[in-house]
Structure formats: structure tokens, C-alpha cells
């Protein structure tokens, strides 16, 4: 179990460091900044790479909502959810701290929103609480549905990390203007601690909505995608520990 938790810590650190770090350090870099498309791609590539790396150890969740959704779908032991959550939030917070240390090395640095998630005044596009809630629930439900489908035994072999990573890229392209894209309570928590905005006061939404969306996505997959005793193929690295 310790190896799995260490893998989740490292994986979540990497995901937050690359996904949020691309927004904090390079998105608006003068003249050569990567913009929203670059940030979206950075997050998707980071997720894809780490799923390939730790999928065979911990399942490569890197997200408390994914752990919950997999448990609801019968692919992950419910008793492992809390330890995974602790490791994921710790990894995300460590990434936030390292990013703050790096970013604060620039003269005149102010953390501002620090890539935190938000609604209303803290939404990049000024979107409401309702818009943020709907966006996070619907996109997380579809993301979990894709995760379950791409790791099913009927899916083509070894393509799941690519499918999941590109799906996160697409999600970011849609929802960054709405909430700055969470779908991941650990990611939201890890950077909210360092923002100079009221991000912590809005953090509840970015725990509630992804969790609710994950449950909806798991229920939808059980209704649409499962048949009989169909299970994830245990021979694939990504799938090896989903039922461990």
C-alpha cells in the first residue's frame, strides 16, 4: 500500500506542477506565452505521461474524484479512498508550494489567483456559481465515463492513457474560462492555499462538484457500458491496480 500512496503523491505532484505551473509561469509570458491552448495541452500530456508511469503501481488516479468514481463503478476498494485522497492532496499541496517558491523568485511577484479555481469574481470569465457547478459536474461525469470505457477489456490495448490525457486537454479547452478547470479536488486545494484571492472560501464547490460528477459518470457507465461480469483487463499496466 505504501508504494501505491507514494506513486499517487508523485503523480499528483507532477500533474499539478505541470498543469498549474504552465498557467502560473508561462501562459502569459511576454510575446512567447503558451496561452490557454498550451496550458490545456500541458495538463493533458502530464496526465498521460504519469498514467503510463504509475498506472501499474497505483492505477494512476491522481484525483480524489476519480478514486471515488472507480469505487462506485466497482473497480477500486472503497476502503482505499481515504488514504489515496490524503496522498493526492499532499502531492498537490507540495506542488503548489514548489511553484510558489519558484514564482516568488521573480522581482515584483504577486501570487494573484495562482491558478486557483473559482466562480463569480474569481471565475476567469466571470461565470456564476450555477455555471461553475454545472460545468464541473457534467465534465467530470463525462471524464469518468471515458476513463471507465477506455480501461474496459473491450477497449483497444494500451490506448487508455492517450485517450484520458487528450480528454483532459479537451475539457480544459472548454472550461478554463468558466472555473479555471478543476475536476480534481486535490488540484484545487493544492494551489488555493497560495492564492491571495478568496479561493479557499470557494473550495467547497471544487470538492462537491467533481465528486458528484464522478458518481454520475460511474452510474452512467454501469448502465451503458457494463455487461455481466465484465471487468477491466488485468494484463494492462494502467488497469492492473484498479481492483487491487
Automatic annotation (TrEMBL):
Report keywords, A-Z.
Membrane, Transmembrane, Transmembrane helix, Transport
Bilayer-spanning residue ranges = 12-30, 36-60, 81-103, 127-147, 159-178, 204-224
May I ask which residue range the UniProt record assigns to the signal sequence?
none
Say yes or no: keyword Transmembrane helix present.
Answer: yes
Q: Does the keyword Membrane apply?
A: yes
Q: How does it sit in the membrane?
A: Multi-pass membrane protein
Pfam families xrefs: MIP (PF00230)
Q: Show the InterPro entries listed in the entry.
A: Aquaporin-like, Aquaporin_transptr, MIP, MIP_CS
Its localization reads: Membrane
Q: Which NCBIfam families match?
A: PRK05420.1
Which family is it part of? Belongs to the MIP/aquaporin (TC 1.A.8) family.
Matching entries from PANTHER family are given as: AQUAPORIN NIP1-1-RELATED (PTHR45724:SF13), AQUAPORIN NIP2-1 (PTHR45724)
* Annotated protein name in UniProt: Aquaporin Z 1
| Native species | Shinella yambaruensis
Amino acid at each position: 500500500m505504501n508504494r501505491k500512496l507514494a506513486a499517487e503523491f508523485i503523480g499528483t505532484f507532477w500533474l499539478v506542477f505541470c498543469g498549474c505551473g504552465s498557467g502560473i509561469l508561462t501562459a502569459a509570458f511576454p510575446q512567447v506565452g503558451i496561452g490557454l491552448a498550451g496550458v490545456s495541452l500541458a495538463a493533458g500530456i502530464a496526465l498521460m505521461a504519469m498514467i503510463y508511469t504509475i498506472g501499474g503501481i497505483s492505477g494512476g488516479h491522481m484525483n480524489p474524484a476519480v478514486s471515488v468514481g472507480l469505487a462506485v463503478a466497482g473497480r477500486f476498494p472503497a476502503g482505499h479512498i481515504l488514504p489515496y485522497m490524503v496522498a493526492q492532496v499532499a502531492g498537490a499541496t507540495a506542488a503548489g508550494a514548489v511553484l510558489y517558491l519558484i514564482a516568488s523568485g521573480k522581482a515584483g511577484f504577486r501570487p494573484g489567483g495562482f491558478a486557483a479555481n473559482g466562480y463569480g469574481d474569481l471565475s476567469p470569465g466571470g461565470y456564476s456559481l450555477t455555471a461553475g457547478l454545472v460545468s464541473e459536474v457534467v465534465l467530470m461525469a463525462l471524464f469518468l465515463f471515458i476513463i471507465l470505457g477506455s480501461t474496459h477489456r473491450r477497449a483497444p490495448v494500451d490506448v487508455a492513457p492517450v485517450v484520458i490525457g487528450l480528454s483532459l486537454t479537451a475539457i480544459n479547452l472548454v472550461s478554463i474560462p468558466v472555473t479555471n478547470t478543476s475536476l480534481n479536488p486535490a488540484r484545487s486545494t493544492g494551489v488555493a492555499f497560495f492564492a491571495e484571492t478568496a479561493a479557499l472560501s470557494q473550495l467547497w464547490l471544487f470538492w462537491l462538484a467533481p465528486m458528484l460528477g464522478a458518481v454520475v459518470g460511474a452510474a452512467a457507465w454501469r448502465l451503458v457500458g457494463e455487461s455481466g461480469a465484465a471487468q477491466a483487463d488485468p494484463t494492462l499496466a494502467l488497469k492492473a491496480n484498479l481492483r487491487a
